[in-house]
Amino acid sequence: MSIEDEFAAAYGRAPTAVWRAPGRVNLIGEHTDYNDGLVLPFAIGLGVTVAGARRDDGMLELRSRQAPGDEVTVPVKDLAPRGVPGWAAYPAGVAWALREHGVDGASLLVDADLPRGAGLSSSAALECATALALCDLYGVTFSRTELARFAQRAENLFVGVPCGLMDQSASLLAVAGHALLLDCRSGETEQVPLPFEGLAALVVDTRAEHALTGGEYATRRGQCERAAELLGVASLRDVADLDPALRRLHDPVLRRRVRHVVTENERVASAARLLEAAAATPGRGPGAELGALLTASHASLRDDYEVSWPEADLTVAAGVDAGAHGGRMIGGGFGGSVLLLCPAERVAAVRAGIEAAYAAQEMPSPRIHRVTPSGGAARGA
Length: 381
Known about the structure:
Blueprint: H1 3-11, E1 17-28, E2 38-54, E3 59-64, E4 72-75, H2 89-98, E5 106-112, H3 122-138, H4 144-159, H5 166-173, E6 178-183, E7 189-193, E8 199-208, H6 215-231, H7 242-248, H8 252-280, H9 287-303, H10 310-321, E9 326-330, E10 336-343, H11 347-360, E11 367-371, E12 378-379
Parallel strand pairs: 3-5
Antiparallel strand pairs: 1-2, 1-12, 2-5, 2-6, 3-4, 6-7, 8-10, 8-11, 9-10
């Protein structure tokens, strides 16, 4: 049954329209966003779809095809932070963030082919599809950049996840065939071409689910803020010379956190320059150099930021051994997915190598997707 037909069966009328927002893969730049740093995500074909229609009674009714029987109905005027549980908190938070701008009641039905908990930003995709839907239904106009900030505000304040702006920006601003270079301090963006001819990007869902409402993510953010305070800078983005900064910090944990953030920003800038040079030089593939940056990022996330997990480490090692140029964990950490960049002709071998490594460790088989850089959120026909 199509989402339109299921909406009609659930609500007794056809939806006004359908909106879709993609998930994202962050090519490089992890845990830099809330440190005012640089990130380089791209949107993928997997995403979240929302069918919707206005209501005249001020009620927000939320249903999901992935959570049958878990419907939520609440007056928009009564929405309050932490007031809606589970998956519905994300679309409800968007309605809460937009209600002072004229958004009111609506019936929404959600569908997704983007796995939750896989580090592909299913929450931001849900927020962004909902934001487009509610704004269209009520004739509210905001720029994509402004909408990304409303979605971030919903996740920060309503849901309670202290995320940065990267995921929402990628979902709303992405251009097919490009990565989005985002300066999380200024909000400036640049579309960076991804010359992936002859290359394949594989996303390996390790099936170790993560939940960013857990304390470890907030702990890392607090450690970065404490380190910036001790160093006398507004954020770790302002650390220009790493070695003197590290000598000023006596806490070895804070030193590791700072080293990751500073070196990761450098890796993002290097990756963007590498991709631009490759795009300007036909026949010059960025695979080996870009792969090395990804693997260095993973080592930093594993050793200095301490957010990796066993399946991710196994996936990177097995993928590289099987012929991938490089790879790294993506997302907040503690579970989720790994990105591997490999020659197109090595895809089958890399898949086989990873599956064999999981089998040898008696781990559940991972889910492996080949992804391409896709366009951002949009209203359907």
